[in-house]
Every structure is written in C-alpha cells, then in structure tokens.
Amino acid sequence: MRTRLKTALLALLLAGTCAAHAGDDALYRALGDQAGVASLMTDFVTRLKRDTRTENFFRQTRVDGLAEALTDQVCVLAGGPCKYEGATMAKAHADLAIGRADFNALVEVLQDTMDERGIPFATQNRLLALLAPMHRDIVTR
Fold first, then answer.
1. Cys bridge to 78: 27, 40, 55, 91, which one at CB 3.0-4.6 A?
2. pTM for this one?
3. Confidence class of residue 21 from pLDDT cuts 50, 70 and 90?
C-alpha cells in the first residue's frame, strides 16, 4: 500500500505541471461525464466518512453537499462544462489543522475508490495530477 501511495505521489509530482488544456474534455469523458464524476465523488465522500484516518474531518459533513461541491470542482478540472462556485481550498481548510499524513490518507481513499470503480491507473494519475497543487492550500500543519 505504501509503495502504491509513493508511486502515485511521485506521479503527481512529475505530472503536477500537466493541466487539462482549454477545450480538452478527455479526462471528463474518461471519468464518465457528469454522472460518472458525481457517482465517484459520492462514493469517495462516503468512504472518507467511514475511514478511521479521515472520519474525524468529515463527521459533521453532509455527504450530498460535499459530493456536489467536489463534483463541480473535479468536473471543471477535468475539462467538463461545470462551474465551481465553492470556497477556495485555502479558505475551506484554513482552520482544520490538516497534516501531511491526513492528506495522504485522503489521497489513498480516493485511489481506493477509483480502483473499486475500475478507473484505469493512467486516468487516476491524470486526475490526481490536477488535484496535487491543492496540497499547499489544504495541509496547514
């Protein structure tokens, strides 16, 4: 498990500068369009609430509310036609005292969720590469 996480994090660092080009919706389509992204994010948030490493951060969180915000955010990042109107990552996470281990656990839950859904490793890495820059706004301790 640790090797897989390290491999994914290395892939994120190497691909961190790769972003979806304007008009490129290939990742959005690979994730199953709006319905696929929404289903993935609902599953992901549900798992975060159950995982002993992350549950404390999500105890008071409504699955549907967070999943909807994440769906919009991932949709935009993946090149879809959505609009994200939520808080910035820095503002949303400022008072949560999230550490590196907490963040890594969240990434692992996302990877496991994508694995369970049969999302190919290359597609997972493309999404994780787009999410990786958020690390600096989320990890606050």
1. 27
2. 0.81
3. very low
